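job 3f2a | input accepted
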Amino acid sequence: MPLLGVLFVNLVGSFATWLVQFFTQKVAVATAISLLLGALILGLFIATRAALSGLGSMAGSVHPMFGAGISMIISPRVAALLTTYMAFWVTVELYKWKVNLLQLWARTI
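job 3f2a | predicted structure (109 res):
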């Protein structure tokens, strides 16, 4: 009977260890992907903001009225809106890519 108890404790312990290791790896990968995606979206926002600022300063150097017209057309929120739009589609494409990889992996088994 003590042998059966030791076997049961070892089985439960090894299962618990495997479960903790599995979820720890899963959380670590999810955290890394989230941080990477956040950094890429921030870089995308900064690049969009720089491009729009460059466009505004270029338009102002051509003629002051042209620069004023561009500043009326391009809202200060355009950089955030474009970044959100592009980040949304990047996330959608990443999801579709991941689903395709899972389908390919499932076919090989």
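job 3f2a | The two ends are 41 Å apart (CA to CA).
job 3f2a | closed
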